Amino acid sequence: MTKELKAEYTVLQGPAGIWWSHHRTTFHANTPITWDRFTTAFRGNYIPPGLTPMKIAEFLKLTQGTKTMKEYLYSFNNLARYAFEFINTDAKKITSF
Q1: What is d(CA 33, CA 8) in angstroms, rounded to the nearest whole number?
Q2: pTM (predicted TM-score)
Q3: CA proximity to 85, closest of 62, 61, 63, 53
Q4: Sign of dihedral through CA atoms 78, 92, 36, 34?
């Protein structure tokens, strides 16, 4: 799936869906909305600026400790959303895990 189609087929409901349908009207009719453009706009609207550095730091400190593998994987995936540059290749994902 292309980055344009990924953004096009994103389904948001509730307040996020309303926000997205309004936000899309700020683009010219034939402007392709890439996944990068969508995620930048979404994060800019829904994630406070100081939160991302905090979540990246939490991601970098994450260890399994006493968590089950399932609990650790959940925490890893949840925090990885904020630390994309550390998981954007399979090699980086393996190293970070």
Answers
A1: 7
A2: 0.64
A3: 53
A4: negative
CB atoms within 10 A of CB 3: 15
What are the boundaries of each domain within the chain?
A: 3-46, 51-96
Inter-residue contact 83 to 60 (CB < 8 Å): yes
pLDDT tens-place string over residues 34-68? 888 888 898 899 999 899 999 999 999 999 999 99
Angle, helix 35-46 to helix 14-24, in steps of 10 degrees: 120
Residues 52/79, Cβ–Cβ less than 8 Å: no
Structure tokens at 52: 């991302």
Examine the pLDDT at 17 and tell me if it is beyond 90. no
Query: How does DSSP classify residue 81?
Result: T
Tokens representing 96? 């970070």
Burial class from Cβ neighbours inside 10 Å (0-12, 13-18, 19+) for residue 38 reads buried
Question: C-alpha 22: how far from its chain's center?
Answer: 20
